[in-house]
Here is the input.
Amino acid sequence: MKIRPLWILALVVPASLIIHLQKSAQVFASDDDQTDTGREISIDCGVTEESQDSNGFHHEADDAEFVESGKIYNVSSDDIYANSQEQVWEQMKTVRSFPEGVRNCYTLKPKNGKCNNYLIRVYMSYGNYDHKNSIPYFHLHLGVNFWEKIKFQNVTDIRRKTVVQLSPTNYIDVCLINVGKGTPFISLLELWPLSNSIYRASSSLLPLGLMTCVNLGMSENLKFIRYAADIYGRSWLNGKIDNSKPIYTSEGINIDVKEYRLPSDVLKTAVRAQNVSSSLYINLTSINFTADNEHYIYLHFFDFEEHSNGEVRSMEITFTDTIREPVTLKHEDVRTLVKKIPKGVILNGISITSTPGSSLPPMINAYEIYRALPQPNTPTHEEDVDAMRNIKHAYNIMRISWQGDPCMPIDYRWAGVTCNYSERIPRVTSLNMSSSKLAGQIVTSFSNLMTLEALDLSNNQLTGEIPESLAELPNLKLLNLTGNNLTGSIPKALRDKSTTGLTLILDGNPGLCQTSSCKAITKKFIKPLVASVASVAVLTTIVYISLMLCRHKRKHHSDSKVMLVKKDDQIRLKNQGFSQAELHRITKDFETEIGEGGFGKVYLGRLKDVTQVAVKLLSKSSQQGFDEFQSEANLLSLIYHKNLVSLVGYCDDGDMRALIYEYMEKGNLRNLLSDNNPNVLKWNERLQIALDAACGLDYLHNGCKPPIIHRDLKSSNILLSENMQAKIADFGLSKAFANDTDSHISTRPVGTFGYLDPEFHRSGNLNKKSDVYSFGIILLELMTGQRAITGTSEGTRHISDWVNPKLEIGDIQAIVDPRLERKFSTASAWKLLEVAMSCIAPIAIQRPDISCVVIDLKQCLAMETSLESAESSSLISSTTLDSSYSQSGMSYSPPSAR
Ligand SMILES: *[C@@H]1O[C@H](CO)[C@@H](O)[C@H](O)[C@H]1NC(C)=O
Ligand SMILES: *[C@@H]1O[C@H](CO)[C@@H](O)[C@H](O)[C@H]1NC(C)=O
Ligand SMILES: *[C@@H]1O[C@H](CO)[C@@H](O)[C@H](O)[C@H]1NC(C)=O
Here is the structure.
């Protein structure tokens, strides 16, 4: 079992439209979030010592920690940028250029690691640094995929490219590609950690490339609002709208702006229409929308104007004839409207009008437009990437091609490396480091290249013994160690292997004993023990490491945020109140009981249009106060995600309270896993269910503002639709919390024995990590078929107590549900177990954020599906690679599917 991380590309995230509504709260001052301290990395390329610029901003040394190739230059005429409006003109006076090789990369290693959101920005300005007066043209790649074309207008033109990415890997490669039109170079490179819930493409993990970022209503003589006023490093251009009136507030702003962290100068300025009957029109004809990309529009509002008698500013935003959104603002509301513009739609502009009856004219503060960058290439298996990086560092190899990803893109793969591209995730299959001046021992990292078939280390100065671990490479067919100074004897395992298909070439190693009469190798008998101890140790380490990598950011207190999450086109079910009489009709007088939940019985119902629904009748004892019920029902009706059971309506009539949900044909996961179900769930179905449920939980945790803590996640709360799509049920009944840690305001004890966070007993708090714990238990159930709690003769037994002894001896076969009859890949089973164990870490902070779990589960499922396709090899075609991206979107149908 190995660390087997991330290639992953698609992450299903929140709705295509989210409105964050944040009401006044005094939080601005209490900023204790360690991750929000602004820029983490800034490399002034060409300056090889740490430095500080005249603004007092710190820059890292541009050295081998980040980049290993290229030459540094000064721009000769120092003053050519002196009149520049750019804050960064000083950093433009040195560059690193890359005359050699096709791809040269900077590798950034952010502290928060993978599964976190980053803004990455590069600056380039030619400045005739090479005295050739020939302005180059080149490409930028982010990781293994295309990011931007870099084209300059003139010698002093400063190009700035910004991208936001939820990084799927711990390393972020920013690569410059020579396309034969001049030498690529770079002037400045920056990285900023962002909140994980902002600037995320809705249907996948696509990075978002910034197209424009504009603040409105600014004073004429200002050009930008930017760092350090903007803690997230955005540069807000001073924009204008025809026939609009700039408005401004001089009051201090004491509202919580935690999500998008808009600078106060962006909030304090805005434009509004001249009068209520005229509109605002944002002209976007200069924005280069492309039909092949999705685009994301962010419209920011802060309504600081006084409203008479609590009046609401009610506006309609028109993107195209068919894409419209309402926005209503109360005094001091801060909102960001996020709108996904689907492929094929080219916007000319956005118009904002006030809706009939509103007496306040339309207004807006700022807007941003991003392009979702397609990710056709999948990075090499992370295990191989790590091994190759380790090998490179162990022998201090400086090969121009050995930068960025080892196998991807195919044209830029590392010299001497051959890869297998027939499965979704490329893997290294042969490594030829013949005559590469390697000195020292043969490092064990070679044995981590699990799919290696040929290893040629001939004609080097390698010393020491041949590591026995090389024999553990299952597919190794050629090991050429000719012409080294290896000593000792040949490990027995390797000798054995050479009788079964391994070609072992060892000539020219005078100190090597090649006969079997050399001192016996006696490690064998201790090996099983070592292996099992090692597997536990490795697992623990992995869990630990992955926890460290996925360390989650602490959220802030924010007193009274209110959330609105909406579906694409309309607020769903505005008035889906049902009367008692209707409820009786729908359910045929509560004829068919289909379940009983914590809050009451559930009945089958049928709406007029024959849609089946589940009617949850809240029992008298569980009934809350009238207001609470209504506000929760309202809230629930606004939450929409394909992996959450959606509310169709509610009844609050007389003494009857009920919630009406979509009907989930296949029932709950607990029943599907039970022995009574004759149709045993297949392994890949289980993985898909795990992933679906994780996506639903990710939405509650990271897509909702404030986050929603489920508090009673369990297998009987995971329901399955007719086509086996898993959805989480019963989530809203646990109340939306103002924030992650503030859960002591919970009024009702919840949680189910077996699923309850062990920390709860100590702290009495339920938070996101408690849900992650419960989710881990569900993963164990999925894997094992066991119940969370089983009654035994000695009392009750928790599922983790059942798994742990088997885990200690490394017996994965004994852990996985025997009803699967071994029809699963051990690799994906180990991976799933890793994820589950990390989720149920006893200490909450050691558990990963659910967004990280989503990524891991996608990988897990991909392992399984690639295996399946390998088995039915007739189905493999050369198109696999090209379509890999869309496949990684897996079974997700667009949110509008239902
Ligand atoms: C509103 O403003 C527009 C110009 O922006 C003007 O043409 C129109 O007459 C105004 N309407 C009212 C009712 O003042
Ligand atoms: C490795 O490369 C060398 C030449 O650089 C070649 O002679 C040798 O055959 C290669 N080995 C393999 C296994 O391809
Ligand atoms: C092993 O390496 C030597 C030296 O590079 C080379 O001459 C020989 O052809 C290699 N053998 C194989 C089978 O690749």
In short: DSSP finds 16 helices and 49 strands in the chain. Residues 243, 274-275, 277-278 surround 2-acetamido-2-deoxy-beta-D-glucopyranose (ligand 1) (CB under 6 Å).
